[in-house]
Amino acid sequence: MTATTPIPQDIDHIGVIVRSIDDAKRFLGETLGLPLVKETHIPEKTRAAFFRCGGCEIEVIEVLPEDVRQRRLGDNAARIEHIAVRVENLDDVLTHLAGQGGEMDAPPLLHDGDRMSFSVPASTMGVRFQFIQKNFEK
After folding, report:
1. Is the predicted pLDDT of residue 4 greater than 80, yes or no?
2. What are the pLDDT digits (tens) for 58-70?
3. pLDDT digit string (tens) for 10-20?
4. In which region does residue 69 sit, left (phi positive, over 0), alpha (psi from -120 to 50) or beta (all else)?
5. How many helices and strands, by DSSP H and E, does the chain display?
6. Are 112 and 95 in contact, with CB atoms under 8 Å apart?
7. Residue 6 vs residue 55, higher pLDDT
8. Residue 3: its pLDDT value, please?
9. Sequence-separated (6 or more) residues with CB below 8 Å from residue 44
10. 112 class by beta-carbon count within 10 Å (0-12 exposed, 13-18 middle, 19+ buried)
11. Residue 60 φ then ψ, to 5°
12. Rg (CA), the chain
């Protein structure tokens, strides 16, 4: 690693695909007592809820098309889907990763004011990473 290597700042959240977001919300909120930070809904695609856990969050995601949810979960009730890390400059990170053989599954996207990109797991040690530049301004 050199002085110019962009280093992730922190873990933002851990994304978990779940069979039932209502069951996940009960467990995280009621059983574990974690505070609910926000909920998002992309019609006909996903419902998600974020719970604060120390310095990061746990995102639970219910994929709405049943066939897609089944394909991503198999026989599991839940599984870790990605690890999201905050970065200072997404373009610098993506350029660095590309130079090291890292691949992204799509061009960067903007969601809720944050700019982000997801890695192809086969190119990032078998783990799907989400790189997030918070509060992105063009």
Report:
1. no
2. 999 999 999 999 9
3. 999 999 999 99
4. alpha
5. 3, 8
6. no
7. 55
8. 52
9. 64, 65
10. exposed
11. -105, 135
12. 16
